[in-house]
Amino acid sequence: MAGDGQAGSVGIEQIRRAAEAIAGAVHETRQRPSRTLSHILGCEVILKFENRQFTAAFKERGALNKLLHLSAAERAAGVIAMSAGNHAQGVAYHANRLGIPATIVMPKATPNVKVQFTKSHGARVLLEGDSLAEAAAFAHNTAEREGLVFVHPYDDPHVIAGQGTIALEMLGAYPELDTLVVPIGGGGLIAGIATAAKALKPEIEVIGVQSILYPSMKQVLAGEAVTAGGASIAEGIAVKQPGTLTRAIVKRHVDDIVLVEESAIERAIALLINVEKTVVEGAGAAGLAAILSDPDRFRGRRVGTVLCGGNIDQRLLASVLLRDLVRQGRLARLRIRLGDQAGELSRVTGLIGEAGGNIVDVAHQRVFSHLPAKEALIEVAVETRDDAQLAAIVERLSHAGYAVTRLAED
């Protein structure tokens, strides 16, 4: 994907100055090899824990660098940003620290927890529009009407330079890295990282990652119509139109963009919790999802990826973890047909227990069924060690004369 063309006004010197400017106010988050993931994937995996920033996302870097470049008059007037999540909190937090009035426009459907977090940092929050595009239009109109500085979430040289400081830290600690795998939404993160990485180590390969539902950067650079849309678990990179400045930088410095399935992102979230004991949002797991999806491409390489955010809804996280148990065969729903007579339910649960299964839930259906009146259906949620034990439970029930169906996970 590398090519010629103007890459905007962001270079390694701007990124180095950004690193000096934000030092001490933004965490230099840890990066370290994952021995377990490296063993699973057949490559050396280096993780950058940007989910450990104060607001749990990398967005602080670019937001702060932008704020530090405002004139005294601009600081006094205040700033405005449009965001449904991480950018909102990054701008609000650092604006509050610097004494800069901040207004954040969020779509009406933004989860209340994100609204409250943003308000807790001292920002004025306006809920406007039924979509990000409508909220953005309102934010631009408000900026013009009130004389505020609009802080773009990605298409701004100072924001891009701030995000690029991640690459300085990664290659400073692990100069032997030969591949960087970076999530792409609007493109600010990968534009900054790729600019710095290629300046420090021209031979390094930089690979962008997008959800298959939102392939906007890949499509734009290929000259294709954008078909992005859908309910992605990686809402942080669910962007329909990448930035103008960022796409020029990506075209010049990024070697490839890969698309990952939503199921791969879910698996990566669960794996990071189980292996690394760290919570990431969907966008933050996209890099690992790309490696999981194509391990042969990365085999034997030294691969760095950024866990760019950790702000995931608790209910969604719980659903991801339970769905992962289902995929592993450690949690399943069985539909069992049995006689509607005393002792049958006890007998079935006894057989499951004897086989080592743990019953999580039972639904007993006598009325709403097309079965004969003297038969019933039960649906049992069973927890097991693995798929082999689940198969043994089904075999035991079948051998005892019960018709058993394992219900699909979707």
TrEMBL record:
Catalytic activity, EC: 4.3.1.19
Gene Ontology molecular-function annotations: L-serine ammonia-lyase activity; pyridoxal phosphate binding; threonine deaminase activity
Domain ACT, chain residue ranges per copy: 333-410
Reactions accelerated catalytically: L-serine = pyruvate + NH4(+)
GO biological process, one term: isoleucine biosynthetic process
Similarity field: Belongs to the serine/threonine dehydratase family.
Pfam families, per the entry: ACT, PALP
Major enzyme class: lyase
Protein name in UniProt: Threonine ammonia-lyase
Keywords: Lyase, Pyridoxal phosphate
Signal peptide: none
Cofactor(s) the record lists: pyridoxal 5'-phosphate
PROSITE patterns tied to this protein: ACT
